[in-house]
């Protein structure tokens, strides 16, 4: 569990918003420094063979202006690709996508360290945001950032479906939900709204099991 706590604390989280033509987009930002050269981190984030080892299998025309599809998850268009520092894609889920974009920014910090930033901006239904806050998206990205970090160190969580049922995974997702609650409160959200969103997010990712009651 100490490693899990360390992984949570290694990430800086920020919650914000910005105006886009489609309306007000909510933003979640994750920042973490990896002990790896920027070229290696870029390759891990753009090589489909490597992406499948720490995130999800991906297919499509993987070049600027092309379209990608993550297995069982989002797809979209590759909007910007400037190696080894910037990747922006649209992030489409379902048949009514609305505005949703993910941008990854990499900044070298010496030869063997890289500052990784991921920002997800999306126009979401107000009732969904009121129920879950930033954690609905943030916990999922925390899992991705965890997987990338393990991959860059030569490891992995193994079978994601099996791992997500473990006590270790439940602890990670619970602490991630709480960390996003703290970031939400720092953005100016009322304490009651934060507490409610954390409960809902934790209940979604790590619901109580019969043995827990």
Automatic annotation (TrEMBL):
- Ranges for the Activator of Hsp90 ATPase homologue 1/2-like C-terminal domain? 35-130
- InterPro entries linked: ASHA1/2-like_C, START-like_dom_sf
Q: Give the matching Pfam families.
A: AHSA1 (PF08327)
- Entry similarity comment: Belongs to the AHA1 family.
**What name appears for this protein in its UniProt entry?**
SRPBCC family protein
